[in-house]
Amino acid sequence: MNAHRIRMSQRLAVLSFVAFLAFLSPAFAYEQTARQVAERFDRVLRKSHTSLATKFTLSTCRYRMENEAVRCAEKPRVSVLENILRFYGDDIRSSAIILEPAREKGIGTLTYEYFDPKKDNATWIYLSALGKVKRIIANRDSTDSGSFFGSEFLIEDLDYPKLDDYKYTILRQEDARVTVDGKVLVRPAYVLERVPNSERARKTKYDRVVTWVDRERYILLKEQYYDRNGKLFKERTVKNLQSIQNHWWPKQVAMTNFTARRVSVIERESIVFDLNVPDEFLTQRTLTDQAFRERYLSQFRSAWK
Q1: What structural domains does the chain harbor?
Q2: Which of 108, 132, 158, 253 is the most exposed place for a label (fewest CB within 10 A)?
Q3: HSE, side-chain direction, 13 A CA sphere, residue 16
């Protein structure tokens, strides 16, 4: 009998302590959950594949609303690019080269992304007409840290966020509509907010970013960007998610700028994961040496799906 009373007292003490913690700091537990969601989302981004090679079109235009849908109000500016990316642990190296139009062929970027928040990412752009490589400086006030090949995607939009650069909050959980293999589905999602810390705030153009994260697959479904005044001005949406080599990947990604009333769309044509990408390819020589670049790209193209 005494042993039973002791066990009951112990259980009551544990329950009381848990209840006390929940009452004392409910936000603490909630923030931990938000961090865990951010970590799983990041892990899917960084650990689901070792490399990728893709060919895509990038189109940009001013838009108008038609039947509640975004439509181009002018002939879009269209480029065709090839992108090669490789992971080095949690770090990333990638290149993007324009194939078309002919007048822009050979213009490209090389980016080194670092997981360590103390190390700044590095991006270089090669202007083929000038034959020069220029370093792009990441600064919230710098025009050099602007758009990706003249689109509404900023260079930082295409970088993988560094976990420790942000504070995370789960705003709510809700269903999100998304097309999967051509069918409209409703997916349960975390609505995850990330707010830059003081160091990151000096480099980013965003006051905060809100991401709809698929609760089962931990992939991006939608993302909204707020300016320094806290106003929503851009939204990223994904369309036609597909399972390719066991990776969930969108066929199309759109970035709508509500302030400029412009929209840019990345439309994937071909993709392959986990190729052997040599170290020497992801160097500035790939930007400046066409014959060197084509020797490797021809190998990657043969594996595209």
Answers
A1: 46-301 (2.50.20.10)
A2: 132
A3: 6
